[in-house]
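Internal tracking record. Fields below are filled automatically when a chain is submitted to the structure queue. Please do not edit lines marked as system-generated. If the sequence contains nonstandard residues, flag them in the REMARKS field before resubmitting.
Queue: standard
Priority: normal
Entity type: single polypeptide chain
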Amino acid sequence: MQIIGIALILVTCTLLGYVFEKNEYKRVKEFEQLIYGFEILKSEIDYKLSPLSEACLTASKLTQNGVQQIFTRFNYHLTKREETDTKKMWEKSIEESRKYLSLKEEDYAIISMFGNIAGYLDKEMQKRNIEMLLEKLAMQKKEVTANYNRTSKMYKGLGILIGLIVSIILL
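SYSTEM-GENERATED OUTPUT FOLLOWS
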């Protein structure tokens, strides 16, 4: 009976290490999708001259990993027009999408910057501001990827190690 308990502790700790690693991996993938989504948004506004709501709809159809929820919700709020301030609509969209994403607070702070420029400026200014946002997202993605590369093996190893330590203590 004691052996079964120790085995369960070992397996649980190992799985926890893998769960933490998977969250970091998911965050890297979400950054890739965010960059892709904002590139789509920029090209829709710049080349197709699409209104912001249509550009968001296109971005939501072409992105995945939970990121599409941000663009879907923003499109919904833009078409419903319950609010007149696009910044508030963008913030509300981000808030409603949090449960689908593995991003951290500093990531949301970068994404929130889009709300400051959405719908207020002319096409050229929106394009430049989206380009600046893309640069910040790319820098953050580089940092997130480096962090993932540094910590992914550590999370797995720590899960196993903690499981072994607890098992040894219980013996």
